[in-house]
Amino acid sequence: MSVEQAGFDALAFRRTLGLFTTGVTIITACGQDGERVGVTANSFSSVSLDPPLVLWSLAKSARSLDAFTNAEYFTIHILSAGQEDLSNRFASRGEDKFSGIDVTDGFGGSPLISGCCARMQCRTVHQYEGGDHIIFVGEVVDLVSSDAAPLVFQAGKYALASRKADAPPFVTSTATEFKDDFLGYLLWRAYFQFAAELRKEGAISDYSDDEFLLLVTLAHNNWRSPGGIAKAMFHGDAEEDTQEALAGLEAKGLLERMTGADGVELVGLNRNGMDSALAALAAAKSTEAVFLDKLGLWDGAALKNLLRGFIVETDPGLPHPWERQDNEAEPLRTSV
Ligand SMILES: Cc1cc2nc3c(=O)[nH]c(=O)nc-3n(C[C@H](O)[C@H](O)[C@H](O)COP(=O)(O)O)c2cc1C
């Protein structure tokens, strides 16, 4: 029976299958002629615990079909969250998918890729006809795994797995209620908790919020104009806040002023300032590590991903604080 005979079209079938959220694997083998082959596949599934069996299916149209059907072993690599590029590479019909990738030889010469969540070397024990695919069943003969966050595939797009929060259910807001499912509250509360922890760090506790932001901004791109800083850091015309933060760092002996190439006033961290900024950045990183440790690797990666998406989707066109603005002349000297 064809898809149409079943009463739906191929697109609807694909879309429906895509609703089943999966991980992403790269499956490799060594062909009889010694050629290394590898394909991205999300048809991977567990079959049996004892004996340890898994399966996956490969399109009969795949270039690597002969190599897989003749290989005694194949290796399944469960991809980690950062391996999207690798997934795309092995989903293409390129001839030399392994170029530039560090691989070692596994059973039967099947290429082993590093940096994955997990890797299972399998001996092919069955091959079945499966419509336009061949189904491979493998007995797992060796495995390695890590606690890296896995890459996820959902509705045709890459995604990250995040665990449902272990917290009481949200109370739905009415138009006039301000309860804990309100996005603004969640963002503010999360920031408040992070900032409070940050303040406990000795290398940071002496600075106001604005001074800290200015310090790390200048550490990334030193010698800026006060106007450029106001625009980039405070997202607008915040001359007063900028001057206050500049004066604060100056009073602490961390900041100097000079005139740039075209007469524009520039401010920058001196040696002391740069050392203090590096200490503050290290302290901020260690605070981040405390939070990520509490969240766990998976949720940490998923939260950063969601916040990045939130910022990109809702960005009214704000400049990035680290970037030099158009009106900021390059300084005459860049060293401190
Ligand atoms: C996320 C994802 C999952 C995929 N899953 C499969 C799969 O399970 N089976 C398959 O035959 N192709 C799958 N593909 C497509 C193959 O990776 C693609 O056709 C690849 O080019 C085949 O390589 P080859 O022609 O060099 O053998 C998938 C692609 C992506 C992006």
Give a quick set of tags describing it:
336 residues; Arc Repressor Mutant, subunit A; alpha+beta; 7-stranded antiparallel sheet; 3-stranded antiparallel sheet; Pnp Oxidase, Chain A; binds flavin mononucleotide; 14 strands; 2 domains
Strand order of the largest sheet: 3-2-6-9-10-5-4
The CATH architecture term of the largest domain is: Roll
Provide the CATH superfamily of the largest domain.
Electron Transport, Fmn-binding Protein, Chain A
**pLDDT under 50 segments (min length 5)?**
none
> CATH fold name of the largest domain, please?
Pnp Oxidase, Chain A
Mean pLDDT: 89
List strands and helices in order, with pairings:
Elements: H1 10-18, E1 22-23, E2 25-30, E3 36-41, E4 45-48, E5 53-59, H2 65-70, E6 73-78, H3 84-90, E7 103-105, E8 111-113, E9 118-130, E10 133-145, E11 151-154, E12 157-160, H4 183-199, H5 209-220, H6 226-233, H7 239-251, E13 255-259, E14 265-269, H8 271-295, H9 297-314
Helix pairs in contact: 5-7, 5-8, 6-7, 8-9
The chain binds flavin mononucleotide (FMN).
